[in-house]
Design a protein that fits this description.
By secondary structure, the protein is of the alpha+beta class. It has one domain. It contains 3 helices and 7 strands. A 5-stranded antiparallel sheet has the order 3-2-1-7-6. A two-stranded antiparallel sheet has the order 4-5. Strand 1 and strand 2 form a beta hairpin. The longest helix has 16 residues.
Length: 109
Amino acid sequence: MRIYTCNKCSKIHLEIGNTHIHFTTMDRLKVYLGYLDSIDVAYYSAINRSKGLTKEIILPLGEQVSINLAFTTQEFEALKETIRCYLCGNLSVQESFLGTKEFYPLNLN
């Protein structure tokens, strides 16, 4: 999982496995983090475990498509921490060959 700002298009890109989510502004990223923070992890984790799902947190991608992102509780918490670190500037930065700066939380274990 990584989050970065593209030097070419200036969008914020959140990469989760083989999924990319694009944000046009920091405000939109903050709104997304607010949405993630509003999810009752314990509640949905218990429901989805009882269904036999290994990924406990299911996030819809939007109203127009029927695709969901699926996370274990640990992956979901790492997602929120990655965004939170990016917004606070608490990140390590690496230049990539694609002309982007990639941001990783400093304390990712």
